[in-house]
Amino acid sequence: MPQGIYMDGNSLGLMPHSARRAVERRLNDWAEQAVMGWDRWFDLSETLSPQVARLVGAQPDEVISTGSITTNLHLLISTFYRPEGERRHLLATELDFPSDLYAMRSWADLHGAELRLIPSRDGQTLHPDDIAAAITDEIALVLLPVVLYRSGQLLDMPRWTEYAHAQGCVVGWDAAHSIGALPHNFHDDGADFAVWCTYKYLNAARRARRPIRP
Predict the structure, then answer these.
(1) Most C-beta atoms within 10 A of its C-beta, which of 47, 106, 130, 186?
(2) What distance in Å separates the CA atoms of residue 96 and residue 70, rounded to the nearest whole number?
(3) SS3 for 160?
C-alpha cells in the first residue's frame, strides 16, 4: 500500500488490525466447528448492543447491529411508515445520500405517495425556514441526516424531532456521517428510529494504551 496520510474518514476507514484478527478467528471457528458454530455466533448482534447503545445515547434493548444501512432503512420504514388519508407522504432532503432517497422513493411509489425533498439554497446546506416549511400535516414520515455529508452541516436533532412530532410526523435520523465523530442522544431526544453504519468514523475508534499528554 502506498505510504501517505489517510484522511478519508467519512468513507471506508482503514482496516484495524483487530478486524483482521476477528475475521480470521471466525474463519477458524467455521473450519473447526462447522454448523455447530451457530451456537456461538447466533447472539453476536445482541452482545454488541450495549457498546453501540452507549455511542448513540440509547438503551441496550433499543439497538441491534445487523444488515446494511439500506436494508435496515427499508426494515424501519416498513415498521414506522403508516400512510393514512392526507398524511401519506415521505420527507427527506435533496442533499441526502442517494441510496437513502432510492429506498424512500420505493416506499412512496408502493403507496401512491410522494417523496418530498427539502430544498437547499446553496447546494450544500439547509436553511431552518425550509425545513420547517416542508414538515406539514401531509407528511407521515421524516428522515433527516444528523450531519449533511456534502458540507458537514450539523442539524439540531432535538429541535427538529420535537417539531416533527408536533406536526404529527414520525421522524427518523441517518447517523452514517456522524456516528463515531459526534455524541448522540437518540433516546432522550425522542427519535422514533435511526440508522447508521460502522465502517466510516468508527473505524478510527481505538483504546488508548496510555494517557495522551500535550
Answers:
(1) 186
(2) 13
(3) helix
Determine contact, residues 45/184, Cβ cutoff 8 Å: no
How far, in Å, CA of 76 to CA of 82, rounded? 11
**What does R_g of the chain's alpha carbons equal in angstroms?**
20
- Which pLDDT tens digit goes with each residue over 39-96? 878 777 888 889 889 989 999 999 988 888 999 999 999 999 999 999 999 999 999 9
**DSSP class of 156:** -
Alpha carbons 58 and 186: distance in angstroms, whole number? 6
Scan for cell 450531519, then name that residue.
147
**In 3D, which of 131, 136, 133, 183 has the Cα closest to residue 160?**
131
This prediction's pTM: 0.83
Closest CA to 104 of 78, 66, 134, 136: 78
How many other CB atoms are found less than 10 A from the CB of residue 202? 17
Q: Furthest-apart CA pair in the chain: how many Å?
A: 60
Is-contact 108 90, C-beta < 8 A? Answer: yes
d(C-alpha 143, C-alpha 73), whole Å: 10
Mapped onto helix, strand or coil, the DSSP state of residue 42 is coil
